[in-house]
Amino acid sequence: MSSQCVYSKWEKTNVLLHSAALREYIPATKLFGHENLLLMLTEYGMVYVKPVNGTFGKGVMRVEKLRSPSKGYKYQLNTTIRTFPTFELLHQSLVKKINGRRYLVQRGIDLLRHKKRRFDIRVMIQRNNNNHWEATGIIGRLAHPAKIVTNYHNGGTPMSFESLMSTHQSPTQKMVYAIRLKQISLDIAKELEKHYPGIKELGIDIAIDQQMRPWILEVNTKPDAFIFRKLEDKTIFRKIYQYAVSYGRYKKK
Ligand SMILES: Nc1ncnc2c1ncn2[C@@H]1O[C@H](COP(=O)(O)OP(=O)(O)O)[C@@H](O)[C@H]1O
Ligand SMILES: [Mg+2]
Q1: Residue 248 has what pLDDT?
Q2: Which ligand does the CA of 30 lie closest to?
Q3: What atom in ligand 1 is closest to the CA of residue 111?
Q4: Domain map of the chain by residue range?
Q5: Mind listing the pLDDT tens digit for each residue in 178-236?
Q6: How far apart are CA 151 and CA 135, in angstroms?
Q7: Contacts of 57 (CB under 8 A, 6+ apart)
Q8: pLDDT of 3 above 70
Q9: CB 215 within 8 A of CB 207
Q10: Any bridge partners for residue 62, and if so which?
Q11: 207: Cβ below 6 Å to ligand 1?
């Protein structure tokens, strides 16, 4: 494994927690286990359970504690929803799915929606030709209507930040907010490079909740450049691709 790729979401989360400034954007995250799951569900009502070493939204589950009159618990994996009358039955079922692998429990964020579908934001951070960090792209990803993940490789649709945020913010607010998300992402790059000096690019997954508060869901060290091809402004993808080629991520065609 090259020093440029860090796969463990647990390790990367703990690195970011070193920064007092970034800490407020990180949803509470613990390793999956009976006690942690119970604690987190009691505290937050809804959590995401996901593989420490996952990609493409694979194996990601949304777990909820139901409130009266129904009570009990439910979780969704892919498009399947299962409900349980007790915590013990829920836990047993999750343990079977997890099958001995390492998983995280993370506070669930109630994502903003566009036409009833959840979406989140991906910010691309790269070293530019002067070796400085630059926020080269921002894009939204709209979940498939029946799914709980927004990943492109899991039925999600990449769409411009501006169009997804239109029903939530004015044009000026959107501009200011995009700058804020890019700044948080640049701060993440600066924090991570202290621990992983070789990194050249990052893709930051950011959730926005109903109060418009941003949350860092995960940081990818091998971000997909090609989703940015979906944007109307072709100069964005061209730049991202050029930077990636310059440090050898893709072979020049
Ligand atoms: N804590 C969370 N709250 C709300 N949605 C989440 C949470 N964690 C993950 N998701 C959703 O699941 C997707 C995949 O999770 P992520 O942590 O990015 O793992 P992966 O490496 O599989 O992309 C996210 O893009 C987001 O749509
Ligand atoms: Mg992701």
Answers
A1: 85
A2: 1
A3: 4
A4: 9-26+111-246, 29-107
A5: 999 999 999 999 999 999 999 999 999 999 999 999 999 999 999 999 999 999 999 99
A6: 20
A7: 147, 149, 150, 151, 153, 154, 156
A8: no
A9: yes
A10: 48, 76
A11: yes
CA distance 97 to 4: 31
Q: Is the CB of 50 under 6 A from ligand 1?
A: yes
Q: With a 6 A CB cut-off, is 60 part of the ligand 1 pocket?
A: yes
Q: What length is written for the chain?
A: 253
Predicted TM-score (pTM) of the model is 0.96
Best residue for ligand 1 mutational test, from 60, 139, 148 (most atoms within 8 Å of Cβ): 60
What is the CATH topology of the domain spanning 9-26+111-246? D-amino Acid Aminotransferase; Chain A, domain 1 (3.30.470)
Residue pLDDT, tens place only, 136-185 = 999 999 999 999 999 999 999 999 999 999 999 999 999 999 999 999 99
Both tokens of residue 88? Answer: 């013990």
Amino acid at 165: M
Q: Which two tokens stand for residue 236?
A: 């964005």
Which residue owns the Cα nearest ligand 1 atom 1?
108
- Ligand 1 pocket check for 111: Cβ under 6 Å: yes
